[in-house]
Design goal:
The protein has about 350 residues and is mainly α. It has helices spanning about 1-35, 50-65, 65-80, 85-95, 100-120, 130-170, 175-190, 195-205, 210-235, 240-255, 265-270, 270-290, 310-345; strands at about 40, 45, 295, 310. The longest helix is centred in the middle third of the chain and has 40 residues, at about 130-170.
Length: about 350
Amino acid sequence: MSRAVDQTKKYLLTGVSYAIPFVACGGILIAIAIAFAPMTPTGPDFSGSPFLKLILDIGTAAFSFLVPVLGGYIAFGIADRPGLVAGFVGGYIANQVGAGFLGGIVAGLLAGFVVFYIKKIKLPPYLRPVMPILVIPVISTLVVGFIMYRVVGAPIKDLMTFLTAWLRNMGTGNSVVLALILGAMIAFDMGGPVNKVAFFFGAAMIREGNFAVMGACATAICIPPIGLGLATALGKNLWSAEEREAGYAGLAMGMIGITEGAIPFAAADPVRVIPTIMVGSMVGAVIAMLGGVGDHAPHGGPIVLPVIDNRIIYVVAIVAGSLTVAFIINTLRKWSATNQKKGTL
């Protein structure tokens, strides 16, 4: 069992190592564009800044490769080059159906194992040369694409509909419970379907004159990347050089409200990272809700400070949630490293 877990982690790390440059490049370009664009009650305004809009578009293009690259190179880690096509296509479809990075992980693992077992089929020698360049990519892509569209896509759409209705029915009757739920949802899949349901619910509340819901969401949105970035800065010996680079990118992305800056960490170690960032975002969201933080723009992170009510509490909530993430994840990594060291003695 432990060997299977170690192998799976190795596959995930392969995908993450190739995806990090896309996250860093795209995220930093987006951060630069948003940081210098005027912030309005409807979000960043690029109407008077065509060059900033160009930078944003280039960053968005680079960032859009994150999930396909993640899926493609997870498959590559399992099945080598024959797995790349199905992994990339599966990752692309994960984006199309709104499955986010979790869908990309599913697509990559699925593609990798489909190709791995196809390669084990014994065939006549004259068919072997065309297998890796024609037969395997076509069959594996067809299988993975069918599953991603027909099996993964429909449940995600139904889940989004259910969660939206649930949040609307819940309303703001119990603000602390609502903040806990929104914080957990925002952090859970970092830009995926669950995150988007919470975000769009907060944005809808702005139109109804309730800015507190978006205030909680805006706080929760930036905590995962900032918290993990802080963790790599505060516990340098616990993280690799590549992870620390992703941490710097995460800090920049968190400052302008891009939760996806936490994806490389969550993809590499979902069991520890996802619950940790959920706790941090829940802490921040509750503090924001109790402190009367209101966000007048459908966006998050420190970048929206000009349109925030109770700005000091907003900053306190972000700091508290981010430090919670950094403390928990570094403690877990220290504990894991200590146990591994004891196991080798």
